[in-house]
Amino acid sequence: MTKGLSAVNVTALVLGFSFLYLPILILVLYSFNDSQLVTVWGGFSTRWYVSLLHNEQLLEAAWVTIRLGLVSATLATVLGTLAAVTLTRLGRFRGRTLFSGMIYAPLVMPEVITGLSMLLLFVAINLERGFLTLTIAHVTFAMCFVAVVVQSRLVTFDRSLEEAALDLGCPPFKTFFVITLPIILPAVVSGWMLAFTLSIDDLVISQFTTGPGATTLPMRIYSSVRLGVKPEINAVCSILIAIVTTGVIIASIATKRAENERLKAERAAAAGR
Amino acid sequence: MTDAVSTKRAGSSGLGRRILIAIPYVWLLIFFLAPFVIVLKISLSDATIAQPPYTPLLDLSAGWQGVVEWWNGLDFENYTLLTEDELYWVSYLSSLRIAVISTLLMLLIGYPMAYAMARAPKSIRPALVMAVILPFWTSLLIRVYAWIGILSPEGLLNAFLLWTGIISEPLYIMNTETAVLIGIVYSYLPFMVLPLYASLEKLDESLLEAAADLGSPPWKAFWQITVPLSIPGVIAGCFLVFIPAVGEFVIPDLLGGSETLMIGKTLYNEFFLNRDWPVSSAIAVLLLLVLVVPIAVYQNVQARQLEGKA
Amino acid sequence: MTKPTLQDPHMALKPAQKALGPIRRSFAPWLDPSAVPLIRFENVVKRFGDFTAVDDVSIDIHQREFFALLGPSGCGKTTLMRMLAGFEEPTSGRITLAGQDLSGVPPYRRPVNMMFQSYALFPHMSVEQNIGFGLKQDRLPRTEIEARVKEMLKLVKLEPFASRKPHQLSGGQRQRVALARSLAKRPKVLLLDEPLGALDKKLREETQFELMDLQMELGLTFLIVTHDQEEAMTVADRIAVMNHGKLVQVATPGDIYEQPNCRYVADFIGDINILDAKVASAAGGMARLAVAEPAVEIAAAAPDPSPAQGADVAFALRPEKVRISIDPPPPDATNVLRGEVWDIAYFGDWTKFLVKLDGSEKIMRVSRANATRTEFAPIAWDDKVHVWFAPDAGVLLTS
């Protein structure tokens, strides 16, 4: 049997990945275009990046976005991890089906519905819209993603480790912090990263739930994109892409390295006996 | 002694457990479930020019009388409007059509990709999975924006095709349903590929060997073994992309122009441009009703996948 | 306790004339120079990158033979079998089946079928569909497929489970489905890849006998891969012992056990005492060996030609061929050593004694059948004992 890739498979991969990556590469490439026009290559230039530095509105929006991302991702991680523990460790309780429904539904719920319903809630309880409402909205949908990521780690987790801790006299609450949490930490961290990215990428839900003084970067980008393609927007997008890509790649290398260290240590231990 | 042990047990797994469950539960009840009740309520109200722009408002200070008045003010007028005005049901239908077509297109593109990934040497598989996930971490808005520069009449695709001489007149793809399909397929493809890959990667190589051993050539074994066993992945992938695609707003808004109607966009416009909150709420309720079956199916698949092992 | 006598009937015979172990005298085609083998591995080599999985292996397997490939994991036995099934192509050398060169023939056109270690039952098909799968590929008429599936279900006694899915079956039942599926096409050769590894001990033993009966009943050629030496000894007509991709010895179970051709085989199969020694003198089929530890001289039957004086050799001695007693042995006993009982393991049917030999740290393993229910003077821990063995009780190994 062929262990390598057949020509058909290679073609599928090359075409598929070209489709996924070419548009992004073109976008980044044209952020360095000296010309105003998108189709004409006017030579290499970084002038759009320079002009970004003088765009007060964009910088302000970027700052809001980052603060929002940090706060909502952290809160979402706490709540999402709790939700995952609830689903995998706390057994049956009344309304569990409803609870798991509320965890999975936001993953596929059309954003317009989530956004609209939350706005109407904020109006109904007369909560002034702004940074606070944005944060609540982002926490709510991001915590479900965190919950799913952490849950998928918890179900593969060897329960006997926790049972051993309990057996040795460690109370459940402490067991969670000294045994469970350190082991599922990589999943919690990637949950946080996912929540952060979802938050800084979100447009639709933010449009609904925001108020004066809390305009995020995607909202700014959206309003200028509606007016057409501009090299300056390409530059902003390229920076965002660069940040996210670097973050994701560093994180995956870090996990891989930790994994390799562990494997190496295990192998050394096995050899040394 | 035994008593002390058992009380301690009860305490830690009773109150503590209840608090642990309550924190995320109450949060979701307030911020996810309650809003839907409000949406339902407002969908039965009438629009007015006021703040908030709907009536009746529940006035609790008027006591029982207020509740009765509020209740009497609710009606199904908005839903009647939705069925009568062509704009709405055309939007629903075209949303469903676009979502179905794009889901099938993604299956067509995603299956060979996922299959090739699952057949790739084990050492490069994590890198390939990473490469599929990476675009998803980039904002949807940015990815859709990238296509504007490619698809517009003076965009790169036309420039390229004109240059090669394949066409002599620029293609008008931008602001058509085709552009929306391209945008949806492009944006949601990773969600299709990943579940497919997960189910194909799990496939035990020895099953294919057994099929070959029993006289089934590779292409036949593909249809007899691989495809039937990847059905769970196909179902998960299709629902994962179909549901959000139906309610998609950004893609039809930026790529579809005014001629492409999709329900998410109609809802958004109704809300932000017409400021008709009751009608947009009614649209949301109907959209949810349309999606409730697929969402339930998807949740079932998801829950079984995550909890089946536990 | 039976008094051992040196008037053992075997004693007078030379090793070459002995009948070693139970062999089916009626069936030994490998001894017939005119017999044409069914399967021939000819100088087969398989490399994966730098790693040589199978290193220049030649084996002939005859029709109706039950042949076992035995060795530790990673010794190349599975690769050898997979090359016959067609899942791997040899790097060099060739494999023929009934005279036909198999190179380039894809697995789905080879008249051999395999029972997979994991069983590889198709999870989305019922028991019937699994068994009928191979027949369907041959486009047999439906009535014939149905009849053959029925026959197979009967053969493996699974008729009531025909419409179940694999996950609704027990491990033993799955194993039977896998067996029935691979037999349904009536292959020329049935390949069994660790077929019983997933079963518990008792079920495994039963199934071993069933496999043997089945093989004789159907008159098929079976090739089994296993790392379990007892399994290989039980089921096979001949065993090929492999190590590091090389063939070490091919022989009947009796020969493998009683006449190992090297230290590796002696050590791999069963329990054994290996005494390192130098040849002090050798003549006329007998040798005197200077054992390194303890420093004693022993008499040993020597192979022909005799090893050179001073050569490094090993004397491999099975525990059950050593006698043990507290009382002094009969005066004509040879190779008498003294020691102290270090450990005793009681297995019911027999007992194993670990005896630390005087003047050394060497442990001699001695086993004795418990032929009577009670003993007059049982051997206990720390007892001073005599152990002794006949010169031809062990094998003199030069490699």
UniProtKB/TrEMBL annotation, chain A:
A GO BP annotation: transmembrane transport
Any single GO CC term annotated in Swiss-Prot or TrEMBL for this entry: plasma membrane
Membrane topology: Multi-pass membrane protein
UniProt KW keywords: Cell membrane, Membrane, Transmembrane, Transmembrane helix, Transport
Residues that span the membrane, as ranges: 12-32, 68-90, 102-125, 131-155, 176-200, 233-254
Location within or outside the cell: Cell membrane
InterPro entries found in the cross-reference section: Bact_Polyamine_Transport, MetI-like, MetI-like_sf
UniProt-listed PANTHER family: PUTRESCINE TRANSPORT SYSTEM PERMEASE PROTEIN POTI
Protein name: Putrescine ABC transporter permease PotI
The species this protein was found in: Methylopila turkensis
TrEMBL record, chain B:
Record-level GO BP terms: transmembrane transport
Membrane topology qualifier: Multi-pass membrane protein
SUPFAM superfamilies: MetI-like
UniProt cross-references to Pfam families, sorted A to Z: BPD_transp_1 (PF00528)
Subcellular location(s) of the protein: Cell membrane
TM helices/strands, residue ranges: 20-44, 89-115, 127-148, 179-200, 221-246, 277-298
Domain of life: Bacteria
A GO cellular-component term linked to this record: plasma membrane
CDD domains recorded: TM_PBP2
UniProt domain ABC transmembrane type-1: residue ranges: 92-298
Keywords attached to this entry: Cell membrane, Membrane, Transmembrane, Transmembrane helix, Transport
Family the entry assigns: Belongs to the binding-protein-dependent transport system permease family. CysTW subfamily.
Protein name in the entry: Putrescine/spermidine ABC transporter permease
Species this chain originates from: Methylopila turkensis
TrEMBL record, chain C:
EC number: 7.6.2.11
Record-level GO cellular component terms: ATP-binding cassette (ABC) transporter complex
Keyword annotations from UniProtKB, A to Z: ATP-binding, Cell inner membrane, Cell membrane, Membrane, Nucleotide-binding, Translocase, Transport
One Pfam family cited in the UniProt record for this chain: ABC_tran
Matching CDD domains: ABC_PotA_N
Gene Ontology MF annotations: ABC-type putrescine transporter activity; ATP binding; ATP hydrolysis activity
Domain ABC transporter per the UniProt entry, residue ranges: 39-269
Reaction catalyzed: ATP + H2O + polyamine-[polyamine-binding protein]Side 1 = ADP + phosphate + polyamineSide 2 + [polyamine-binding protein]Side 1
The keyword Nucleotide-binding belongs to this UniProt entry's keyword annotation: yes
InterPro entries, A to Z: AAA+_ATPase, ABC_SmlMolc_Importer, ABC_transporter-like_ATP-bd, ABC_transporter-like_CS, Mo/tungstate-bd_C_term_dom, P-loop_NTPase, PotA-like, PotA_ATP-bd
Cited PROSITE patterns: ABC_TRANSPORTER_1, ABC_TRANSPORTER_2
Protein role: Part of the ABC transporter complex PotABCD involved in spermidine/putrescine import. Responsible for energy coupling to the transport system.
Family, per entry: Belongs to the ABC transporter superfamily. Spermidine/putrescine importer (TC 3.A.1.11.1) family.
Assembly notes: The complex is composed of two ATP-binding proteins (PotA), two transmembrane proteins (PotB and PotC) and a solute-binding protein (PotD).
Record's protein name: Spermidine/putrescine import ATP-binding protein PotA
Phylogenetic placement of the source organism: Bacteria, Pseudomonadati, Pseudomonadota, Alphaproteobacteria, Hyphomicrobiales
Gene that produces this protein: potA
